[in-house]
Design a protein that fits this description.
About 20% of the residues lie in helices and about 35% in strands. By secondary structure, the chain is of the alpha/beta class. The strands form two sheets. It has a four-stranded mixed sheet, covered by helices on one side.
Length: about 120
């Protein structure tokens, strides 16, 4: 029986699409794949979109989903973010890896994860 559901994308609502594109390109080093009403990035084969909204209730939502980015060296990744003016949370040791969080300009939470 064919699957009923298929993965499409992960997305964050943003208040200023140009500012967010700049953040994801210049701070995180992601490459913009396409842009029309939304901005699209391909991250290791997965589609990540930035969707503009004027509804403040949609920004930095309180849901469970997060963009999680794997890093090889947590300390170096955090140092790079700090040099770019971002603050991250203290690194948490989760046994199988290290975890830290930071936010994009609209308050969307992004995870850094380093496997052991």
């Amino acid at each position: 029986m064919p699957a009923l559901f298929h993965f499409d994308c992960i997305f964050y609502y943003v208040s200023d699409l140009d500012r967010s594109i700049t953040f994801y390109e210049e701070v995180l080093g992601l490459r913009l794949s396409s842009r029309d009403q939304v901005a699209r990035f391909i991250i290791d084969g997965a589609l990540f979109e930035l969707v503009p909204t004027n509804d403040p209730h949609k920004l930095s939502g309180s849901g469970n989903a997060r963009l999680a980015l794997r890093v090889d060296d947590m300390a170096s990744a955090i140092e790079i973010l700090q040099r770019k003016g971002l603050r991250s949370t203290s690194v948490e040791d989760k046994g199988s890896g290290l975890l830290s969080f930071f936010h994009d300009p609209d308050g969307n939470e992004i995870c850094l994860w380093q496997y052991r």
